[in-house]
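lol ok so funny story. i was supposed to be doing the assay writeup but got distracted and ended up predicting the structure for this chain instead. priorities right. anyway since i did it might as well share w the group, maybe its usefull for someone
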Amino acid sequence: MHDLDQGSEERQAVAAGLKTLCDWVVDVSCDDIPEEVLASAALVLFDDIGAMVAARAEPELARLQDQLLDRAGKAEATIFRGGRPRQDCLTVATANGAASDWCELDEGYRVTSCHAGIYVLPALLAEAEATSMPTREVLRVLVTAYETVTRFARTFPTITQTFHPHAAYSAVGAAAAIGLARGLDAETFRAALCNAATMVAPGPSGHTGAGALVRNVWPAAGATNGMRAVDWAVCGIAGLAGSAHDVYATGLKADCRPAEISADLGGVWAITQNFQKLHACCQFLHSTVEAMLDLQEQCGGSLPAERIESIAIATHPRGERLSGTRPPTTLGAKFSLPHAAAAVAVLGHAGAPAFAAESLDDPHIDALRHKVDIAAYPDLPDWPNDRPSRVTLSLVGGETMETEVLSARGGPDRPFTREEILAKIDGICDPVYPKLGAVARQAVALDGALLEQSWDQVVAGFTAT
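and the output, tada:
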């Protein structure tokens, strides 16, 4: 890779910054990462496994995974759908990648749109199980690969105004995970990332609100592309040092902030700036969901859905765009502000059943969806209050109720407690992996004996019946 001196000054700066990042990240050891950061990584790891497990009964996903399991392959790693169905690494990364975002319960990076955990973990967990990687090393790779892919997202942040981050960054996250897991030298690792940057998919952001289920498999495609990007870099097949700029800035027209790719290395770890979810919908809707739940509490625990004449919502631009009143699929429901508000009013929560297939044709939810009016939140505050919602309910008889939420819980400014996330994992996984919760708690506590176990031993333990 010898084109550092070619192209625009901006392109050269991105290439130089990427080299600095790669030179640093390949040398990061577990001892270089604070214990609190490793504990955060353990929580992300099991939270995202929970998100994969949560999708096991989705009919389209079940058919996809059955199709993959029908193919003969070496039993190297586990598809997290109950039991211990095993296949080769590429197949498993595809299956778990498709499951990871299906229920919208995975975590994400709060600084800019990037669900780094599910870009890293499908590939990493398959590789770690197949190679008997120590669990402590799994956490190291998760932290450092998360750090790598979020720096791409920070360098080209405006891409997600047009293209979904799952399509734009998942191949890079997977390549970072596999390259760091295999201990590549800095130059080969950089080649792998540049390869992966040329394999991103221009998946349109609008596919979410339109309910196009192909969006759910973008992390799966990214996982396999990223894994192959590493394989090919090891063979001497590489892109250019400026490939990331060529793709994201020149090709996809994203704004570029070159300093972000190598700024403050080892300072604030990206995985500590994430958000986690209890509500099974797009995070852009969570402030509205919380406002509806606050109004529900004001009503003594139940909203008078049959008396609601209108629901006026003033929210941030990304939430304002999610205005579909007749979502065609469960994905569309998870990206519909009217559906989220109506489902909370009728069902009293925003868990997975509020966005399940049955909710799409619920006559009470449907009626309320058409009573939602959406407007811009005036004088939008700065981060972390940049995703607010003000909700006003107008009831039969002239009564009104109003509340607002400036920042939904789950982000670094208003985090859930670890026990709240562990309880969420229990609720999802206990029916299929009743031993997983205890293992997750050991991991978050950085239990030395567990961390020294190989990941395949850990998986065999919590998947055992």
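Residues 151 and 261 are 5 Å apart (CA to CA). The chain is about 50% helix and 5% strand.
back to the writeup now i swear
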